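OP here, attaching both records as promised.
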Amino acid sequence: MKINKTLTALIAGASIGMSGQVLAVGTEAGTEIKNVVTLSYDVGTTPQSDVTESAQFLVDNKIDMSLTWDTANLKSVAPGATVFHKFTLTNTGNLDQPYDLSAAEAAVSATIIDLADPGIDTLVSKAALVSPTITFYDALTEPTVGDGTTTTLSAVPHSDTGSANQKVFWAGVSYPLTAGVIDTDILGNYVIVTADVSGNGNASDTDKNTAANLEKQLAVNADGAGPNDSANDAKISAIFGDEITTANFEGGANGLKLSVTVVNDPICNEDDSNYGSATFHASSGTATTGVMNCVANAGTGFTPPSGYTPKAIPGALLEYTITATNSGQSSAKDVEFAQDLSTLDFSDVSGVTLRAASLGNVAAAMTGNTDTPVTTGSTTAGLSVTVATFEANADISITFTAIVD
């Protein structure tokens, strides 16, 4: 018998061809792509049943995300305050992608790109480690402190159009109330966004072309290298920072100081009635800091011992001087200088207790400031000097006297 057969390899019309277009961008992960080959033939003039065979595989999950810091520039923040930074995570992969958020403090040597001027990337070196607390907020608009938070946000959808493949979240950064924080300290923090691919396998160490893996949906780490992370590790990061701007009265030559000078005692001068007058001190004629030589009090006939200087003995008059400079970049609000005598713990360096009722001769003056100081309570309760707004680079000097008990 002569066998007349015709062999035709056909791709079934309903199937997807085996060209490179099968893996076109946008094919959803998990999609089964099945190809069918059909063999048809005749025996003699009689058609025979077709013979078919198929092969299929699942499209893998291409993890391809980007993270942008949308706040655009460094924020000025006071110690103890909380500020919010906006981020957008974009999924250009082919599957709704879950992820975890974590934050870690950047090293001192890290740099932060200030995006205030898009035309010029200003690199700002981080000046100090301040260890802020970072909380993530799942919100489209800027949250407030106390809003609901979560460390695992909803998955980022995949889409080929518009912003449907984006997820907006906020990082709330709470800075500690630290006395050592100074102006221009830059606080940088890495925000690491990690795709959660647990249980899906990993194409980097799995052979897709083995029979067992063709019908598995593998996770392919395809993200590119960003400025703060490595390529192909499914971790996308962005670095951001804030600039500390604060009023500063802490330490140093420009900090808060309290000094004391013995300006008179009963041996040097019989009384203190001429304190601040032209005859009270030999040099300037007014009460000033620095131990002064005793002088004869005109009209009293009193002559102090030659070369004698006032001592902190009972009845001595002490002059205290409070000085302060705001060396920060920000104004301080509702500033109060308080000297409490009610507990009788007000003493000089020798531990000599002062009479609470002896506080007097209070004077307060400022330079470089719009608001003037207000003095209250110069009685047995103590001294209080308040300033509504203590401007940056302004100075204050407060003097008062007390008598050794």
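Record two, same layout:
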Amino acid sequence: MASPVMLLAALISLGWVDAGQAQDWPARIIRIVAPFAPGGGSDAVARAVAEQLSEQLPQQVVVENRSGASGLIGSAAVANSPPDGYTYVVSSIGTHVIAPAISNAGYDPIRSFAHVAFAGGPPMVMVVHPSLGTRTFEDLVQVVRRRTEPLPYVSPGSGTIGNLIAEYWAETEGLKISHVTYRGAGQAVTDLVAGHVPMGCITWTAAIGQIRSGALIPLAVSASQRMPGFPDVPTLKELGYAHLAVNAWFGFAAPAGVPPAIVARMNHEIDIALDHPSVRKHLDAQGFEVAKMSPAELTAFIAEQIAKWGPLARRLANPK
């Protein structure tokens, strides 16, 4: 693996930046915006990586939770920040694929950002409160089908992959469900555990603690294969929903216009952080499938995700 010094030399030789500019960064605190409330996957990956980056870089890296509008508020704030390499946002399928497809995001998910690094992410999990009386996914279908009123459910927010999965499933089965909107997964899980809402489609990260305690019952996951330690929980793919084999992935983005040298350096540092045993242990425990991409690969990946999920998101958001 190339050292930061070797990386810097290569960037200078390519003419992307002069030596003084690259050597001066970072000269002050770096901020990572988690655009959802504490308790969800965005917050988890931001804090794990920020803590390790603070050890690697000669500056502190801090996390700021700026939630609201399904992650659009925090993401738009970063898109409109100075492109100086000191402000980043945790990007996701929710903030950079789904929400911009169905609402006025205030930014272009590709052109408004320099996409810096990929982190991977956890699957979504369909869970229910024990009071609903269901123990299998098939039971859930029958319970919802028999109801005269739509079954309330929670997700990390409108326009998130949890919201999309639940609505796609209900549409496919001809079921009536009603989305209860929250500003993030933390409060959604709290009310789900309290029994105020009977069902949720939540990130594995946010739900795993309550699943282990028995407060929530997992019925299906959106992972490509069953989760370690939970061999009895089927995947949505196994249950006939191949289109819903998807992770709630996360990445890191900066405002468009950040010097390429800083983007490359930050990509390098985040990749190192993701390999650190403490970070990997933390993310593995929450069901993360850690993966890495170059800035160019990540930009192309997000464009592919927009092409795949955007039409479905728009169709579900605007039913005929």
